[in-house]
Amino acid sequence: QVQLVESGGGLVQPRGSLRLSCAASGFTFSNSAMSWYRQAPGKERELVASIANTGGRTNYANSVKGRFTISRDNAKNMVYLQMNSLKPEDTAVYYCNSVELTTLQILWGQGTQVTVSS
């Protein structure tokens, strides 16, 4: 089955940490660029972080640089987002995204809610 399944969201206090995971199946993960997006209520979906298919290049939104780290394990078909020093403005639904580099197939996960609040 072709899908992305996110996990790891939840409620965390400001300055806390969370690690999101995304399990990929049904496509060539090692030939796919992977990204994390987020969408807060009333706002457009925005790119948080992306990682090349080899893991050799990453890119971050300015708002999360130095706090978030994207990584991947091609042997396990997994991509992760380590989020540290969380702020209330990080509250959003976080989505995993893939772009297969040969077919240009785009996939989205169902999203996982992250709420940062005291």
Q: What can you tell me about this protein's structure?
A:
There is one protein chain. With 118 residues, this protein is mainly beta. It contains no helices and eleven strands. It has strands at 3-7, 10-12, 18-25, 32-39, 46-51, 58-60, 68-73, 78-83, 92-100, 106-108, 112-116. Strands 2, 4, 5, 6, 9, 10 and 11 form a seven-stranded mixed beta sheet that branches. Strand 5 (46-51) and strand 6 form a beta hairpin. The radius of gyration is 14 Å and the shape is globular.
Protein topology:
Elements: E1 3-7, E2 10-12, E3 18-25, E4 32-39, E5 46-51, E6 58-60, E7 68-73, E8 78-83, E9 92-100, E10 106-108, E11 112-116
How would you describe this structure in keywords?
single chain, 118 residues, mainly beta, 7-stranded mixed sheet, 4-stranded antiparallel sheet, 0% helix, 53% strand, globular
